[in-house]
Amino acid sequence: MLTTELLDVQPSELQFTFEVKKQSTCSIQLGNRSDQYVAFKVKTTSPKKYCVRPNAGIIKPKATCDFTVTMQAQKVAPPDLQCKDKFLIQCTVIPFGISEEDVTSNMFAKDSGKYVEEKKLRVVLTSPPSSPAFLPVNGESKQDLCYETSVEKDRVPNGVENIPSPQRGADNVDGFESYEDMDESRAVKHAEELKPEKNAVELNLAKDFEELKSKLRTVNLKLKEADLTIIKLTEEKSMTTQEKNMLKQELGLLRKKNNARRIMVGFPVLYVFLVALISIAIGYFARS
Fold first, then answer.
1. Among positive and negative, which fits the CA dihedral 141, 147, 150, 155?
2. Residue 148: pLDDT above 50?
3. Edge-to-edge strand order for the sheet containing 7-10?
4. Closest CA relative to residue 22, chosen from 94, 75, 97, 98
5. Handedness of CA 142, 143, 146, 152 (dihedral sign)
6. 177 - beta bridge partners?
7. How far is CA 29 from CA 12, 26, 34, 40, 59, in A?
8. How many angstroms separate the CA atoms of 73 and 18, rounded?
9. Which range (14-28, 52-66, 127-141, 193-207) has the least confidence?
10. DSSP β-ladder status, 117-126 and 14-17
11. Is residue 126 classed as helix, strand or coil in its secondary structure?
12. Under a CB-based contact definition with an 8 Å cutoff, are residues 64 and 38 in contact?
């Protein structure tokens, strides 16, 4: 087990300027005191109330790393600006070469036998400068009184933060939830909320799909009818072409027959001339 602390956390508490319906941001700096690579992870007792970026990472030896905590806008202010929310920073030594994408919750499991250092940070809410919470009460600021009272509750006289007792569920380590778990729970809840909408969308999609299938079937039938019509017209065209050719052949034969008849029925001009010449010669001799 290591004798020195791995991380130096500054500041030692998260201080937010609280205003109703407004977000507030606080930055924390982590300093690696060791000569080794250290992985860290941030958890909180109220994961839905805060947003941490980044919520996990790796710090090089003797280097620092900052993360930002954003408190979501709240509708109602807590009584006397007292907040019981806690943050837990877990860190452990890792070998060189591990990337930030490889940092998982299993690295910080105590049952694995490795040394896991934990730092607890409490949340302190302060009023904005213009808030009535800063008005003097018996010569002292009301906000300062609340701050000092809350500080004394969680700190011993030497200034070191007390480790919460197991009876306080909100302060127990088991009460802290990582942002990965928070994201999973939000995703499950969101999925459950979207189920009715998803079912309605699926029904609409199924209905549209059936309509498209029906239209496709109708189009396919029309295409088949068009194919049959084209085939029929092609066959008719082929038959018409054949009939046309046959008619041309018959017309040619008829023309040849007509020409032959003309030759057989008529008399050549030379034949008529010879007959007339012979008749004249016979008549002349008969008179003489």
1. negative
2. no
3. 7-10, 24-32, 64-71, 50-53
4. 75
5. negative
6. 44
7. 10, 10, 15, 12, 11
8. 9
9. 127-141
10. parallel
11. strand
12. no
pLDDT at 154 over 50: no
Reduced to 3 states (helix: H, G, I; strand: E, B; else coil), residue 253 is helix
CA 251 to chain centre: 78
Dihedral of CA 162/4/117/123: which sign? positive
**Residue type at position 208:** D
The answer, as to whether pTM is greater than 0.90, is: no
Mean residue pLDDT of the chain comes to: 80
Select from 63, 68, 62 the least CA-distant residue to 23.
Answer: 68
Tokens of 185: 């729970």
- Pairing, β 50-53 against β 177-178: unpaired
Buried-exposed string 54-93: b where 16+ CB fall within 10 A, e elsewhere: ebbbbbeeeeebebebebeebeeeeeebebebbbbbbbbb
β-pairing, 140-141 with 136-137? antiparallel
Alpha carbon distances (Å) from 70 to 22, 84, 243: 11, 16, 92
Token pair, residue 10, equals 């500054």
Does the pLDDT of residue 243 top 60, yes or no? yes
**pLDDT tens sequence across 219-230:** 999 999 999 999
Check residue 167 and give its pLDDT.
38
Q: For residue 89, give the nearest of 65, 59, 119 by alpha carbon.
A: 119
Q: What 3-state DSSP class applies to 59?
A: strand
- Alpha-carbon gap, residue 98 to 96, rounded angstroms: 6
β-pair partners for 40:
57, 91
For the chain, the helix, strand and coil percentages under 3-state DSSP, each to the nearest 5? 50, 25, 30
